[in-house]
Specification:
About 80% of the residues lie in helices and about 0% in strands. By secondary structure, it is mainly α. It has one domain. It is elongated and about 90 Å long.
Length: about 300
């Protein structure tokens, strides 16, 4: 429903203000396709972000239910204060880094087409701020649970929800960067179009992935260190003995030491690491594709 509302709102806004039929060059765009790319971005990005909000909240609830009933109840509660702060922060970020000064002058002058672009850009970043604030709040809830939940350093499968919550958030960020490629629909790759997004996307993805499991990671590190120190002490004692039984004990202790050293202190299995690596590759591949299209078209037209 939220995505449909955004689609209808943008259609009405861009039609009534005359943006769709405006002269792209007069608005500061290099071509009509460049303008269309901006319109697509301002339409698709809020739809993506609001749709992801619904999906991630449901996923977080499912993960929370696997861990703790109180956590699940907290995930269900809507943090109004955090949401308002996020929306306000997104609005300020758009004004500071994404809206050119000439647009503000034209908005104050009452240019309808520019006003619609101005509103569209604000809506995009307000949605970004809203979603990030909610997801950081959920990450904080998992972070707090990680301080007290029962753990077994040798059996961590029950702790995977801490990682899976952050993984889905990384997918959202990566997907958003991939959606941003619609700006290059005119086959012109402009790095400045992505710079402001990357300033938010990289630290946000890092925080969203690591924060839910950070406290759990610290506890696993501490537990691993305690076990390692204990077994090393036993190895030192056993190595001073020469009987066959003592040698067998020593070999067993050495195997246990090696096993403890190999324990992963992040609740991420190999399959999750592979998926994370694949997701991180998506935006560069999408951008490289956009740049390649630009080169091919330029060479074709130059023949």
């Amino acid at each position: 429903m939220s995505a449909l509302f955004v689609l209808i709102f943008n259609a009405v806004l861009y039609t009534t203000t005359g943006l769709i039929d405006s002269d792209a060059l007069a608005l500061g765009f290099s071509s009509q396709m460049h303008l269309i790319g901006m319109i697509l971005l301002m339409t698709l990005m809020p739809m993506w972000l609001l749709g992801c909000f619904v999906v991630t909240q449901r996923h977080s609830l499912a993960m929370a239910q696997r861990l703790d009933a109180n956590l699940a109840q907290s995930v269900l509660s809507f943090p109004k204060r955090q949401a308002l702060v996020g929306i306000g922060g997104g609005c300020l970020y758009a004004l500071a880094f994404n809206v050119p000064l000439y647009q503000i002058d034209l908005v104050l002058a009452g240019n309808g087409a520019i006003i619609s672009i101005f509103i569209g850009q604000l809506v995009v970043w307000m949605c970004v701020g809203f979603l990030l604030s909610i997801r950081l709040y959920v990450g904080k809830l998992f972070h707090h649970l990680g301080k007290t939940i029962k753990i077994s350093i040798f059996e961590q499968s029950s702790l995977e929800p801490f990682a899976r919550v952050g993984m889905l958030d990384v997918i959202i960020v990566v997907g958003g960067l991939a959606v941003a490629v619609v700006q290059s629909i005119d086959a012109q790759f402009r790095i400045e179009n992505y710079a402001t997004a990357l300033l938010v996307a990289v630290p946000a993805a890092t925080a969203l992935l690591i924060r839910p499991m950070w406290s759990l990671h610290r506890r696993l590190v501490e537990r691993k260190q305690i076990l390692l120190e204990d077994v090393c002490l036993q190895v030192g004692v056993a190595s001073e003995q020469n009987s066959a039984a003592d040698m067998a004990t020593l070999e067993s202790l050495l195997q246990r030491r090696d096993r403890i050293k190999a324990i992963n202190t992040w609740p991420l299995d190999v399959a999750i690491w592979r998926r994370l690596f694949f997701y991180v590759l998506i935006p560069p591949l999408a951008w490289s594709g956009a740049a390649l299209v630009e080169v091919v078209i330029d060479k074709f037209l130059g023949l």
